[in-house]
Fold these 4 entries.
Entry 1:
Amino acid sequence: MLAGGHADLVTVLLEGGGLVVTGKTDAGRFDPGATTLHVTDAARRPAPSSPAYGFLGVPGGSPIHVIPQAFRPDVLWAGWNTEAVPRGALAGDAVDLALRSARGPGRVEVYLFGADGPERVFSSHDSAVRTTRVAVPTHAHANWVFTAPGVYELEFQATATAASGVPLSSPPTRYVIAVGPRTAEPTATTLRVDGTGTGVELASAVTGGPEHLDGGVPRGWVEFVRHTPAGDRVAGHVALTDGSGTLSLPEDAEALAFTARFVPAVGDLVAGSRSPAVANPAAPPGAVVTGVRDRYAPGETIAATALVSPERPDHTVSWWTRSNGTTTARDGDRTLGLTASGDLDGAELGFDLRDPRGEVVGSARPVALSVTAVQPTTPPSPKPTGTTPAPVAPTSTVPAPRAAPAETAAAETCVPTAVTRPAEPREVEVVTDGHFDYGPVVEGGALSARVKDDRQGAPVHRDPGGYVFHLDDTARATPPAGSGLDFLGSGPVWMVPLTQRSGIPWLGWNTQHPSVLSGVSGDVTMTLENVEGPGELAVYGQDPFGGVGERYFGTATGFPRSTIIPVGQSGVHVHAVWAFTEPGAYAVTFSFGASVGGRQTSAKSTLAFHVGPGEPRAAPTGPPVVEQVGRTSDGRECALPGGGGGLASTGLDGPVVAGLVVAAVLLIPLGFLLTSAATLAAARRRR
C-alpha cells in the first residue's frame, strides 16, 4: 500500500531493447501489479465551479479527491518519468504514454495547470484525451482527479520508435488505486465436496469484492483444508480462474470434513473468506472444531461449528474453554458464538459429545484461540512542515565606512568608500533544460550544498556555483487578471513552472541525499539569505484549481524567507514555481541549517539565474564583492593613505581592524610571558 510521498507512477524504462512501464518512488522501483495506491481523504475537496473545469463532469462543490500537482506532505504525489531512457536511444527523444483503459466508480481526469488554465493530459471519459507525448528525459507531475470514492483500475502503455527505426511498445501495466476510506470489500466462499469413486473433488467459488476491480471477479487463491481428529492440514491450493477453483484428491480415510479458504491477491482491497465445513463422504468416526480463525480482535465474535461424523442428531454438544487449568462451560449447540476478549487469548476451545443420557461419548481436539488488539496502521508519508517561520532579514549588511580624519583643514580628504561589484564570472554551464534539485549533503560531519543533476539518467551532485539557470522567453508569461498573483505585479514574469517543460530548467529542492538521511537529526531549514538582481523573486506552490498554494520563500510582498524541509526515512522532494519579475542577472543566496551529529551546522551557497535576453555567463555565481576604495567629497577617485584601496571587505571596518592589530601586538609579549612561565613551572616539576 502506497499512500504518501513522491511516486513516479508511470516510469518508462528501456530494458533489453524494449520499453517497460513500471513504478518508482524515492526509495526505489516498485511493481504496480503488486502495489495498491491509496488516495486518502486528506485529498478530498469540493469541485470548482469555474467553467474551465467542466470536463470534470460534476457540479461545483461536489466532493472529489485530488492528487495535487504541487507537493503536499499528507497526500500521494504522483507523476511520470522518462529520465532513465538514454538520450538518443529513441527517435526524436520522445515516448507516447497512453491510458489504455480505466474502470472505477467515477471519472479520472489528469491535467496540468498552465498559465492559461488547465491542460488536460489523460481522461477516463474522453477518448480524445488518452495519449500524451513525453520528451526524453522528463520528470513531470500533474493533478489527478477522482470524482467518486472507491477502487479504480488504470492501464498505461508506452510506445516509441527506436533510433534504428524499429517500433517499440511496452506491455500494458495495470495500476490499482483506492480512493477515500480504505476498507477491504467482503467476499463469500462456497465449497462442494463430491465423491469420485477413487477419491474426492473439492470445488470452490468466490464472489464479492470491489465492483470495478478485475471486472468484479476476485483474484487470488483457494486453500483447501482437511479437518482430522489429530489436527487441521492444508490439502492443497489452486489459483482462481473466473472466481472458481477445483482440487482433486485421492480417497481420504482420515478427514472428517473440508473447508475452502480464499486468499485474495489484493488483500488491501478484498477481504478473505472461508466456506462452512463440508463433510467428507468417506469420513471416519470422530469430532472436530471448525470455523475458528487464526486471530481475533477484542469484541469480535468467535464463530465455531461442531462437526461430528457420522452425524448423530440425537446427541448434544457441550462447549468449553480451558485456560490456566480452569475449564469454563460455554452456551451453544452445534454452533457457538463467543465474544472475543483478552482473557481468551491463549485459551483452548473444544466440545464434548453427549448421548441422550448425557454421558460423554467423545470429545473434539481443542483448538487454540488468539485474541490481540489491532495495532493502528498509518501509511508512510513525510511529516507536516508546520508553520512557516517568520521572515528573516538578510544579515549581509556591510558596516558603513568611517571617514579618516583630515590631516589639515585645507587638505582634500580621501574617504574610504564601500563599492559593491558582482563576483567575477568563472567557468560555468548555462542550463536551459532538464531536472535539477538543490539541497544539502553531509561532508566531513558538516553540511554542504549541492545541485542534483538528473539530465543523464544517473544523478550526479555538483557545486551550485558551476551552473547558471537561464530562463529565456520560453519561460515568459503574463499572469491574467484575477489570478491571485498580484504580488508579481502587472507586467510579464519569467517562471520555472510547477511541472517540467522543454526549454526551461526544472529546479526543485530535496533532502534525499543518503548522507542526509543517515546523518541529519530532525528537519532541515532552507533560508533565502539574499537576492541580488533587478526584480523580485517569489517561490510558491499552486492549488489544483489555479490558486496560489504554499508560499515557500521570496522577496515579494507577503513571502517568508525560510521553509522547513522534513527528512524522515526517505527525505522530501519538492517542486514549486520560481517567478522573477524583471529580466537580468540574479544571484540568489541560500543557507541550509540542520543538526548533524548533535551539532547545529549550516551551509551557504549561491544559485545564479539569468532571466530574459543577454549573456547568461555574466550572471554572478557568488555573492557580490564589497571593496573599500578612496573617494573625495565630490566623488573623484583618490589614493587612500597606506595603499588601502582595493581590499575586499571582510565585514570589519578600519578602526576594528586597527584594534585587532593593536591587540595582536600586545598579545605577543603576553604570549611570550605565558610560555616562559609554563616552561619554568615544567622545569621545576622535572626537578
Note: Residues 305 and 353 are 13 Å apart (CA to CA).
Entry 2:
Amino acid sequence: MNRKSSVLRQISPATNGQGVEATFEDGHVSFFPTEAFINRTTAQTQENRAGFAPVKTWSAGVSNHPPTVNYVDVKTGPGMADLMRLIREYGFAFIDQMPATPEASEDLLRSIGPIRDTHYGAFYDFTSDLSSKDTAYTAEALEPHTDNTYFTEPAGLQALHMLSHTGGSGGESSLVDGFAAAEQLYRQDPKAYEILSTTGVHAHASGNDGVNIQPSQAIPTLVHDKTLGVLQQVRWNNADRGGVATPFEDLKDWYDAAAQFDGILSDLKNQYWFQLQPGKMLRKIIPLCHAYDIGIADMRKVFDNWRVLHGRAAFTGKRRMCGGYSE
C-alpha cells in the first residue's frame, strides 16, 4: 500500500483516439490504451470471473447424464481439463474406474491441488465409528448440507470415495444444486431470498475435545460477490448452525425464509440420488472464482462445496470412506 504522502494528487488526462494519456504532477506521462478500460468494465469483469465454462444448473434429471471422467484419462491424458470443466459447469463430477484404495485417492486429490488440513486431519480414511464426534462418522441419514460453515472460508473442493461397504445396505448419496435452489427461491419469494442474502448466521463445531471453531463473523446463507452482486456461495448446514444475527422482531422472517429454502432443498425433484461404489470418486469443487447470476471399481465423486449440497440415506453394516478437502 502506498503511503498517503506518496500518492500523487494532480493528474492531467488527455485522450488521443487510441486511449488516455495521463500526465502526473512530477512530469511523468503514462498511456492507457482503450482496451485497458474495456477489459475493466463490470460486464467484462463478470465474464472474466465466470471462467472458461458457463454454469449449468440442474435438478434430479441430471441422473440421466451425470458428469463423469475416466481415472486413466485424468492421470495421463486430457481428463484433468475435462474434470475441471465439468466441475465448473455442474459443481460436481465422478471419476470412474479408479483403484479402490486410499493411496490412489490421495494421489489423485493431490494432483489437483493441495489438501486442506483441518481438525479432521488432511486426507481422511474413516468408518462410522464416531472416532470424530461428527454426524458423518455415524450411520445416520444426513440431510443436504455444505461442509465447513463453521469456517470463515469453507473449503472449496471436497472429494469422497467409498472404499467398501460390508454386512449391510443403504447409504445412498444425494446431491442438490444450491445455485438452482437459490434461483427457485428468488422466483418463489424475492423477499425471502433477500433475507437469506443479508442476514448473518453463526455456526460452530465443538463436538470433539479441544475443538471449538466459529467463523470470524456471522455470515449470510447466500453469499454474493460484493462488486458484481452475483451469487457466489451457499452456506447451509442445520447441524452446525448457531444463532441468527438479527433483532428478535425479525427472527420469524428469517426462519420463514429458511423454511422455504429448506423445502426446496428437500424436494425430491431437486435431489440427485445415487449409490457410491468402490472405485468411483465424487468430487465437488469451487474454482478460484465462480459466480452465478440469477461394477465395483466404478465410483468416486468430487464436488463444489460452495455450490453443491450433499447428503445420504441411513445405512447398516460397515462402510469405509476416504477423501479430503482442497481449495
Note: Confidence is low (pLDDT under 50) at residues 285-291, 295-299.
Entry 3:
Amino acid sequence: MKSIELFAGIGGIALAAEWAGIETVAFCEREPFCQKVLQKNFPGVPIFDDVCTLNRQLLEEKGVIEPGGTVDIISGGFPCQPYSIAGKRKGKEDDRDLWPEMFRIIKELRPTWVVGENVANFANMELDRTLFDLESAGYKGQSFIIPACAVDAKHRRDRTFVVAYSDSVRRMEYERQPQAVQQSKQQELQRKESHESIMSKPAHGCHKTMADTDSAGLEGTNRSELESSDVARCRSMADTENQGDVRRHWIISNDDRSSGKRSHYRRGTETDDGGQRWTPEPDVGRVAHGVPNRVDRIKGLGNAVVPQQIFPIFKAIMEQEAARWQGHL
C-alpha cells in the first residue's frame, strides 16, 4: 500500500506506516528543519512545501501518482492550534485551520483510506464537521482517542485519530447522488447527539480529571491524576494551590542515590529507609549550550505524532486490506 502524508513534521506518521508495511511516496511539509529530517530518514521521497498549492496535477507531474491514479492512504496531523486548549480555540474561524485543504486533496485523489490526527480537544470542537465532510465525499469515518501512555510513553498526550474508508463503488454512488449530502446531514445530527452523550460520561480506567476552567490564562486546562494501571505508566500529582503547577515526584532510595536510579513511584510520605523525593525540577539551568537547532528540535518533537501511538491503526488497515483481498480470491 502507498500513502501520502500531509503536515508531515518529522515523519512520525510515516515511520508508523513503514512499520506496518506501508510505503510513503510523498510528504507535504513547509518547515525547513523538518524537511531535512524527512530527507535524512526517507531519502528520495519528494517533499512538497505548501498544502494549499498541492494538487493532482502537481503530483502527476512529479511522478508521485500515475495520470488518473491515486494512492491507498492520505494521512496527516493537520495543525492543532485552532483546537488546542493552550490556544484561543477559534476552530474553523482560525486562519490556521487547514482541514479544508486536506479535504480538498482527499476529494481530488479519492484514496481508499484517510487517517487524520489532532489534539484531544478536537473531538469537542470540529470532529463533527470533519466526519460530515468525509461522509459527504462517500467515506465512512470513525474517531478514536488514544493516549501515548497506552503504548508505554511516560506522558499522557491524548490524541484524536480519525479513520475513514471508502471503496470505489461507494465513492461513485455518492458522486451520482446529490441527496447523499442531505442524508449525511441527518446522520451528522444523530452522531452529534450520540457523541455528546458519550463525552458526558466519565472516562473508565484511565484518569480522574480535576478541572480548573475558570483560572486566568488556563481556559480548559485539565489536571489529571492517572490511575494505577498498566496503561498509565506515568503519574502526576496536581498542585491545586498553584495554577497549572503539575509536579512529578519520584522517590529515590539511599542505595540508588549514587547510581541515580529511579525507584517505583510512591505517593505520600518518604520511604522507610529515609529516602527523599526528587525535586520537581533539577537544579540546573534551562538553556542548553552548544546544541544545534535546539528550538527547531523541540518544536519538531512537540508537534510530532508518537509513532507507536498511531501504529495500531495502520496495522489494522493492513489486516483489513489483507482480509478483503483474500475474500476476493
Note: DSSP finds eleven helices and 13 strands in the chain.
Entry 4:
Amino acid sequence: MKSGLPGKIFNAIRNDIIRNAYPVGSRLPPERDLALKYGANRFAVREAIAMLVQSGFAVTHPQSGTYVRDFNREGSVETLVQVLRANKTIDRQTLESLLKFRFVTETEAAGEAALRVAPDDIGYLEANLEKKKRHLADAKVLAECDYDFHRAIITLSGDIISRLVFQSFKPVYFFFAEFYYSISGAPEASLRLNLKLLNALKKKDAAASRTAMGDVLKLAEKKVYEAIKTANASGIRLS
C-alpha cells in the first residue's frame, strides 16, 4: 500500500477510478481541482498521478492531460490485485480465469517436477504436508502451506515464467486459498489429494503427477463454486 500524503491521494483517486467516478478514457481534472477535492497540495497530487500511471490506472499525454487507462485490458497483475483489494471481492470472471490458468500451468508443472524431483525436495514437501495436517482448523496456516506446496512444484518444473507469474499472483492466491480452506471438509479432502500427488512425485511418475495435480485443482474449483452458489454470491468476498 502507498504511504504518505501522495499515497493517500493515489488510493483515493484509484478507488474513484475503480468505482467509475472517472470513466475509462476520460481526462482527470486539473491538478488544482484534484488538490481541492482531495485536500492536498499540487505537489502531492502530481506524485499521486505518477503513481497512477506507474500502476496502470492512468496515462499522461504531454500538453493534453492525464487520462484514465482501460486497466482491465491494459493493466498488469499488480493492477488486478489493487482492483480486487479495492472491491474486496474476487468476481466470478476473475475466479474462472485464475482457476483455468492454474489448471493449465500446474498440471504440466507437476509432470515436469516428477522428472526432476530429488530426495531433498520430497523431504520439503513431506514437511509441508505434516504442517498442514497439524493445522487443519487454521485456514490462514493452510493457505500458507498450500501456496508453498504449489510454488515448490512449479519451481521444480524448471519453468521460470510460470514461477514468476505464479508468485505475482500471491495476494490473489491467498484470498482464494483462505476462502477455500474455510469450507467444511475442504482441508481434509485437500490433504488426501496432496498426499496422492506426493506419492506420484516420489515414484517419478509424470502422468500420475499430472492427473493427481488435476484432481487437487478440480476439488478446489468444485468446493469453491458450491460455496458461492450456496451463499448466492457473485464471487469471493475478501476479509
Note: The longest helix spans residues 206-231.
